[in-house]
Design goal:
The complex is a heterodimer of chains A (about 425) and B (about 90). Chain A is of the alpha/beta class and about 425 residues long. Helices cover about 30% and strands about 25% of the residues of chain A. In chain A, α2 packs parallel to α7, α2 packs across α10 and α3 crosses α10 (about 365-385). With about 90 residues, chain B is mainly β. The chains are: A alpha/beta (about 425), B mainly beta (about 90).
Amino acid sequence: MHYSGFSLLKQALTGNRGWTRAWRNLEPRKRYDVVIIGGGGHGLATAYYLAKLHGITDVAVVEKGYIGGGNTGRNTTIVRSNYMLNPNAQFYEHSMKLWEGLSQDLNYNVMFSQRGVLNLIHNDAQRDAFARRGNALRLNGIDAVMHDLDGVRKLMPHLDFSKNTRFPVQGGLAQPRGGTARHDAVAWGYARAADRLGVEIFQKCEVTGIKRKGDQVISVETTRGPIEAGQVGVAVAGNSSRLFDMVGMKLPIESHVLQAFVTEGIKPLVNTVCTFGAGHFYISQSDKGGLVFGGDIDGWNTYAQRGNLPTFNHVVAGGVTMMPCLARLRVLRQWGGVMDMSMDGTPIIGKTPIDNLYLNGGWCYGGFKATPASGWVFAHTIANDKPHALNAEFTLERFREGNIIDEKGVGASPKSH
Amino acid sequence: MLRIDCPWCGVRNEDEFSYGGDATVERPADHASQDDWYHYVYTRQNPAGPHREYWHHVNGCRAWLVVERDTVTHEIFSTAPASPNLPDPDGRAR
């Protein structure tokens, strides 16, 4: 069923009894040309672009939980493309361009809102670093605006601008095209659009083993039976190490938990995405009115999808320092998602030493914004058996070769990216 | 909140400690192969289950510990000094 103003009106006038399932509920067949492991945004986007752009429709997406229950539904919904290093800049900007047309493309409202992203500046060295970043962005054709204190006051009037604050705000670097999108809608929209093109989606279908013959994968064992595959794409960030352990490979990845928080709903207070520059804290306001915020990962290996109190305290301390009025709000919900923390802070999208097995992982905690481009380049990589120019440098071999892409410059320390 | 049983200080809250990563990786010899160094610097087993890891009691006695902890349940099975050269936790000479 195509969604439109007309279909909305028609259903409204007929008691909303005609709405159909967004995607089919099927039983897995014996074999597919391509099996995508992981029904998050990245896996579903991969399946969608395989069908739409490469004509490969014999595709199964297997998901251990339910669609939207993993990291696609566990982030703080921020979309931006303000990366400085060239491979990241080109890739995330491609993602931004896909976001800008995504609701129309998918025929599903992902509520992409370009309300802007503002990174605060608190000292001179930071201003220099941000000016450099802003210039690098503009040279790559990406929007960036440096704001002085008055500019920041206009965008975020409720910050602590007092003289006595510990980290006075001096200005900010903004990306006006950045913003937020409704995260579940991204998963649902891609699932529905892929399904309409013939892709088959299986929920509660956990991969328990990968069967190989030499350098080829021949099938995946799942909790809903074995499925033979011509090619297998793995998009299970958070659990990539566990999947690749099934084929005896160690990855340059550690799994860590990142928490996110939502306050009670309030009237409009924060009309852009704002990040604290003297700590790690980012905040935006959802369309329902809740303030959505987060900070650092907890910082030690875990596969538990729940966070711990010390990090919560740390995040809230940063938030209240930046914006004291937050102290009056109650936190309604908190959750955690398990991240693939890669050794250079950059994702891995490409081929593996196993011929027909492809890896899309290592997203650290920047995966949501990348969803469209991630699926787009991963579909290209699988369809052509070679990476697109946009992900040519996101290889697994880059660590061995010394070609790491370390945007933050902290080295092989996953907890610091 | 993890509660880590430091052999010298007793049970303390996680926020007195700093995480030091996988304790099973061993530094290769200086002239070891590129492959050995690649695995030492970059790859990790990253298991879902028991994990031996370093913790630094940085806001306490400053000793490095090896903690065996489950990465799914967060249960801690054992805590021990990371180096045999440290003084005995019971105060006895080794």
